[in-house]
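Hey,
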Amino acid sequence: MSKALKGTGIYALICPTTGAIKYVGQSRNMRRRYQQHCTASDASSSRPLALWLAELRLDKKKPKAIALEQITDTSILDSAEKGWINALSQRFELLNMTAGGAGAVKGEGTGQSAPVRMPDDSDVEDAIKRAVHKVKSKPKNPVLQRPKSSKRTAPTSGATELQLTAKQEAFAFAYVETGNASEAYRRAYDVSPDTKPESIWSLASRLRTDIVVASRIKEIQDEMSEMGMITLNSITNDLKHARNLAEELEKPETMVKATTEIAKLHGLTAERVEITGRNGGPVETKQTTDEKDLARKLAFLLRQGVNAIEKGDGEE
């Protein structure tokens, strides 16, 4: 069976980052249909496929594509499409909204109810391997290849180490920090101000459940747990606990201090100090502490304060 993306047959769109198969379709001209997927833009559509393609365009990427099966008898297009969707939906979270066949694009199939024509298991395994190879194959010009940074393993047949994009990495960190997929998506991607909230939610939810991104999020959470790092919310909760403990122990100064730290943490207060640099000029500043270091130091100081209060309770 020929594997070239041309002629009539069943094709698959592939995530250009993870190698996961995302969509299965049928066409009488697979190459032209693929080009339509890459160039078509429907910002108002809420269909999963349209939203995914829009997300790729935001990241200046295009889906990869492979031919699953070339077909000469067009009367079995619907049956073959149903079979491939059935087989691959057991391995991937496909974006197809129908089981195929009757749900085909107008003009690309019979549109009538058709039986399921399942592909051989060996053909399915071969398609998955080719999908991963499509992503991992080197570009013709090595200079244009994106530097490899974070690599994660996806449990799909034939997959080894697959790469996260910089924006996916940023999304994972933002999600761990905020716990909100939509906010994390806004931080990591260049989202237009007029983008509908429901579109952002859909894109963010799909990115959050992507097998490689989800694995990275879990890894970051585990790393933070091991390092004793805590998020803005957990720092706030600990400060509230310290304030409540100080109230029980009737320590008003400590209560005020905890409340002030909560206000500072959320940017509600600001200390203003007038300082001049050399010869009365402006002061040269340089940020030497990143957010992770700040979180660790604040957590350490907070824990010291709570311990001091608990020790003080025992001494009185």
